[in-house]
Structures are given as C-alpha cells and as structure tokens.
Amino acid sequence: MVDSPRIYTAALVVIGDEILSGRTHDKNIAQVAAWLQVQGIRLKEVRVVADDTPAIVEAVNLLRARNDYLFTTGGIGPTHDDITVDAIAEALGVPVIVHPEARAILETYYETRGGLTEARLRMARTPEGASLIPNRYTGAPGIRYDNVFIMAGVPSITAGMLDALTGTLDGGAPLLSETVGCWVGESEVADLLRDTEKAFEGCQIGSYPFWGEGRTGANFVIRSVDAEELAACTRTLVEGLAALGKAAVPGGI
Fold first, then answer.
1. DSSP secondary-structure letter at 251?
2. 71-109 tens-digit pLDDT
3. Per-position b or e across 112-138, b if 16+ CB within 10 A of its CB
4. Contacts of 137 (CB under 8 A, 6+ apart)
5. What are the beta bridge partners of residue 127?
6. Which among 49, 132, 208, 230 is least surrounded, fewest beta carbons within 10 Å?
7. What residues are paired with 222 via a beta bridge?
8. Within 10 A of 212 (CB to CB), how many other CB atoms are there?
9. What is the enclosing helix (H) or strand (E) of 31?
10. Taking Cα atoms as reference points, which of 125, 129, 134 lies closest to residue 85?
11. How far apart are CA 188 and CA 62, in angstroms?
C-alpha cells in the first residue's frame, strides 16, 4: 500500500435476495467501509442487487469502471442459486473454470469432513484468470480478478478475507474525522457550517440532527486527510458555535 495524495475509491455490490427481502440484515457494508478507510480508500457507492444475472452484470460493469476497486459480497456458496461467479465472469467476458489451487484447498479442507462433493466443488469455480483471496474459516477462497474482489456474504468470513487483503492495495492517505456535538437546530447554524467548510477546502462537514431530552441537537462530523487542517477546521467550528452562544461538545452528543 502506498501513501499518496490521490483519492482512491471503491464501490460495493451486495448480492442476495435475502437482503432485499429483509430476511437477512446486511452487516458487510459497515465493515467493508471501515476497512477501506484504514486502507486509504473511500467507499463511494453501494448497490444491493438480487440473485439475478443481468442485474449483477450491469452493476459490476458500471461500478468497476468508475472506481479504482469493486467489492462484491454474497452468492459464492455451493447451492444452485449462488450465481455470483457466473454473472461476474459474464461481465468480465471470460469463462468460468474450476481453479486448480482452489480445488486443492477444498480437497484438503474436506478430507476429514465428508470429502469434496460436486456441490462443494462449486466453491472452487472462478472466472478464468482470477487469483484467490485466502479464507481461514471454511477453506473456500474469495476471488480477485483485476480490480474486482468477490467475497462471501457471511460477515465473519468477509472479515477474514478483508484481513487477508490488508496492506495489499494501493490507497491514499486515510480519511480522518473529528466530531463536535451541540444542542442547536441545523437551520440556526447553516451559514456557519457553509462558511467554515468553504474556508477549509480540504475538509467536509457532515451534519447529523437528532431529538433528545426534549430538545433539538446535532452532531457535526468534520473529515479530512490532513490532520492539521482537520484540527484547524474543528477549532474554527467550535469558536463559531461559541460566538453564537452555543456550547460545543467534543466527541459529539
């Protein structure tokens, strides 16, 4: 991984009818986003699609073209409805093969677990030309093809695959953040937020209102890749709130 002022971006495609139906609550978006931030890569967009080949193909081709990296989660298991590998191979314009290294990994893993059945062998299928992402939990590897990373949908397995990728991707400076809370309505400080962000072009300020204790408040999250500019922007915002008679709460409310 290199430290660069360039902003590297990624997208995530979450694949699965069970996500869209509400039967399964996705946990991968948050963990992928957090992991990417540490790698100096910004998650710019997320799309959730059904187990539908045309939908997967469309999402993969669109998002891999306009981001440095594309990650997918879900649909690479042993059952008939796990179609992610086939759909992504179609998007890439390459055939699906049984990856010899993946087959060897699964043969070893299942040697004392009932053997490598035809269903289990499906987890060795990859787009031709792909490399593997290690999976220390179940043996079945993730898949990398160019800038596309195909991972399992089970969050603990996804986490293991991300861990295996740590430090292997080019990224820029990590995105840093500070949070300031205040018992104030957004409309009361809209001008202050706009002017402060304008004064610090390397910073972005997000405003997150809430209602509690019978009154309105907001947390302001300041983000930047430059620690000094982040500190200066945060200080200016706190001083601006004080000038309006509003006490800032470091770390948020």
1. T
2. 999 999 999 889 999 999 999 999 999 999 999 999 999
3. eeeebeeebbbbbbbbeebebbebeeb
4. 156, 157, 160
5. 96
6. 208
7. 178, 205
8. 9
9. helix 28-38
10. 125
11. 40
